[in-house]
Design a protein that fits this description.
The protein is an alpha+beta fold. The chain is built from 6 helices and 4 strands, in the order αααααββαββ.
């Protein structure tokens, strides 16, 4: 008899507004995180050749972005997105880390200052590699930028021919966050 009374009591309170189920939208936010992952990785790949930092520098920025995501208290993730701990890890690693790194690199490039443009006489043009992995490069006067392959490799620069008067113009600027960026690289001819 007592069981029937309990069932009746539960049935009358199941539609009560205080006991309504909360909608779980965590999958929607995780889908946005995966979208941010692809946007972030694509932007990082696009900005890497324009930024004078190595893979270790990019890895440091990625680690800083991941740390920034984990500095947000776990309770906030629970209240805002209804995430469990593993959702927070996936959201930070797949979504926030690449997106914040890409945002960092874009802001560093867009808000750069102290642009220095210099013309260098080309000493020699070289080919490096074998088969389909051949890259072209230039050796500049005074061996300038010899340690910066992002500047001296010319596979993506339009080249119309080499003569004694051919110079290589390089514009380098200081980025917003102190990382140097390549603004322009082009061949010019001086008379």
């Amino acid at each position: 008899m007592n069981k029937q009374l309990i069932k009746k009591e539960v049935a009358t309170h199941s539609g009560d507004e205080h006991y309504q189920k909360v909608k779980n939208r965590s999958y929607t936010y995780l889908a946005f995180a995966i979208f941010a992952f692809f946007i972030g990785i694509g932007t990082i790949i696009g900005m890497y050749p324009l930024t004078l930092t190595g893979l270790f520098g990019i890895a440091q920025i990625l680690a800083g972005s991941l740390l920034a995501g984990f500095l947000v208290p776990f309770k906030w993730y629970q209240n805002w997105f209804h995430f469990i701990f593993y959702d927070v890890v996936v959201f930070n690693v797949l979504g926030l880390m690449p997106f914040l790194t890409a945002l960092f690199l874009v802001l560093n490039f867009v808000f750069s200052h102290n642009t220095v443009t210099t013309d260098y006489r080309i000493e020699k043009i070289y080919l490096e590699g074998e088969g389909n992995n051949v890259s072209h490069g230039v050796i500049l006067e005074g061996n300038a930028f010899s340690d910066e392959r992002k500047i001296v490799e010319i596979d993506d620069v339009e080249f119309n021919g080499f003569s004694e008067n051919t110079y290589f113009r390089v514009s380098v600027a200081d980025g917003l966050f102190g990382i140097q960026v390549v603004k322009n690289r082009e061949f010019i001819t001086k008379d």
